[in-house]
Specification:
The chain is of the alpha/beta class and about 220 residues long. It has two domains: about 130 residues, ATPase, nucleotide binding domain (Nucleotidyltransferase, domain 5); about 80 residues, ATPase, nucleotide binding domain (Nucleotidyltransferase, domain 5). Helix content is about 30%, strand content about 25%. It has a five-stranded mixed beta sheet, sandwiched between helices. α3 crosses α6. The C terminus is likely disordered.
Amino acid sequence: MKLLSIETSTQMVSCALGDEKKRIFRFSRNKPRAASTLIGDIKRLMDTHRATFADIDAFVIGSGPGSFTGLRIGYSLVKGFSIGANKPVIELGSFLSIVTQLQSEYTRIAVVSDARRNLFYGASYRIANNKIVRVKKEGLYTPKEFIAHHSDYVFVTYDEHIRQFLNEQGRNLSVHRGCVWPDAEVLITLAGPLYNKKKYVKCDTLKPLYLYPKDCQVKRIK
């Protein structure tokens, strides 16, 4: 089983090829608009490691929430790869890959990132018996609202200014010591059991996790 995973929900873009136990390659780049050159990076890495799309059994994509443009690019790549290679797609939340990296440290984790307009993207999780359970699904929240409902959680983010803001909220709020990014390599580990159970997503239903404030919605005039 070989999986090609792509994560483009943030400016830390990453991709990886491998299975649950072994990685053939892993790549990441942290800069604005890094997703726009990802297809060239994937081609270079596959050529270097003599890998072909025929070797790949499925594609994995991080669904967000996050960068609108980055997610569009990532999903376009995965759809094209899936259709061209006639291979299935596995879809996983980007925040879940963050929690997975910290599940051995904490039992309650609240993931937040900057959604602009004084809002958080947020979701919360509990870890019990080495299993991750989502408590509150990904959504848009005011900082005050989300913090009030997660006072007994450890807050994690990849936005340094959000981490600083959280640290300024008082000693009673627990904040992870550094920034943690969504990661394509972690997505491969999470996708392995889903591949074995054939829990795929059809290409025509693939859609990133776009979250908007209500006042940003465009309504059709009847």
